[in-house]
Amino acid sequence: MNAFAFEAHLPRVVFGAGALQQLAAEIERLGAKRALVLSTPEQADSARRVAELLGERSAGIFARAVMHVPVEVAREARDEARRVGADCAVAIGGGSTTGLGKAIALDSGLPIIAIPTTYAGSEMTPIYGLTEAGVKKTGRDARVLPRTVIYDPELTLTLPVGLSMTSGLNAIAHAAEALYAHDGNPIVSLMAEEGIRALAAALPVLHQAPQDLNARGDALYGAWLCGAVLGHVSMGLHHKLCHTLGGSFDLPHAEVHTVVLPHALVYNAAAAPEAMFRIARALNADDAARALQHLARRLGAPTALREIGMPRDGLDRAADLAASAPYPNPRPLEREALRALLQRAFDGDPPAA
Ligand code: NAD
Predict the structure, then answer these.
(1) What residue ranges do the domains of the chain occupy?
(2) What is the whole-number distance in angstroms between the Cα of residue 96 and the centre of ligand 1?
(3) Which CATH class is domain 161-347?
(4) Partners of 129 in beta bridges
């Protein structure tokens, strides 16, 4: 076994069907009294439900979270929290809403309680993103890690089937890259493999029966593990590629992850055989990359970048960008090989080295 250092930074987790009912007690546990409830406009009803549940512990609702956390929205939310005298914030929703909570915490130090309703995993990480003048910057800061996370599978029953599938595959991507991270460790690897296993088992059930609460619980459990590993180790080629494609070509987050993952894994396969073995084992398959593309197809998820809005004439620029910023990755970044990878991902070809 390789030498390693490990320090856990994890929020308190309350998990279970109906766990939302424990929100008031969790706010009290933090020593807080008045929560500003955050959501996207699409989930304003959920925010209202939370505010009703909190009664006088609700300081109000800010239902204007949007993708990629524009700084203007973050400022408005922070000002609203101050105006209504909130001493904590509750973020109910996916990564976009959690991201807004993190932006408030970064500036104000306000404690955040996250109630995730997708499988993106942001609630488990100290990573934040902020978009200013069209440029998204990300960073790490311990202040943005939510203090408490309530995982209630009942709240994921409304997540549309398509987004459930791609969001779950997005979570699997965190765990897959954690298995070959240069700063990985045995505990992270255990969590990553179990996260992939739980999601890969639950997603096909949810594809057929989206209201299956047990499978919703299993998927959320897998998402928790995948989010936790994302918060502890560095991501490689796959996440950098998706960041580039999402940021430069405005492609939808979970779908990009879904399409790119098999191709990024096959790029790294020869340089990370142990990780590939463990991903394949978690998928109950022989070949990790092919099994993931097969799973995406079976789940009706996209498998080609051209299906999700990538312009063909953007592939060269994407390859330049992906090869230009150096970061740790099992296999060195070779511009021509990355260009070929992108072409295969664009066309939806089977993953090949
Ligand atoms: P999202 O939060 O943008 O949600 C997509 C849409 O689905 C929104 O309209 C949302 O309101 C709706 N929705 C969410 N849950 C629902 C439910 N249960 N029922 C009905 N509708 C629901 O999507 P996402 O994929 O969760 O998050 C993507 C964002 O999160 C990206 O900006 C990404 O960069 C960020 N992210 C950050 C981290 C991190 O560690 N900082 C990790 C993962 C993702």
Answers:
(1) 12-156, 161-347
(2) 5
(3) mainly alpha
(4) 138
Distance from Cα 94 to the centre of ligand 1, integer Å: 3
Can you tell me which atom of ligand 1 is nearest the CA of 243?
Answer: 34
pLDDT at 325 over 90: no
CA distance 248 to 29: 42
- Structure tokens, 300: 């009706």
CATH annotation of 12-156: 3.40.50.1970
Measured from the CB, is residue 158 less than 6 Å from ligand 1?
yes
Task: Choose among 163, 165, 205: nearest CA to 296.
Answer: 165
| 162's tokens | 């398509």
Average pLDDT over residues 36-44: 98
For 242, 247, 307, the CA distances from 313, given in Å and listed in that order, are: 17, 16, 15
- Give residue-wise pLDDT tens across range 292-314: 999 999 999 999 999 999 999 99
Summarised one tens digit per residue, pLDDT across range 69-127 is 999 999 999 999 999 999 999 999 999 999 999 999 999 999 999 999 999 999 999 99
Ligand 1: distance of its center to the CA of 95 in Å? Answer: 4
CB of 146 shorter than 6 A to ligand 1: no
pLDDT, residue 334, reads: 95
Pairing, β 148-151 against β 12-15 = parallel
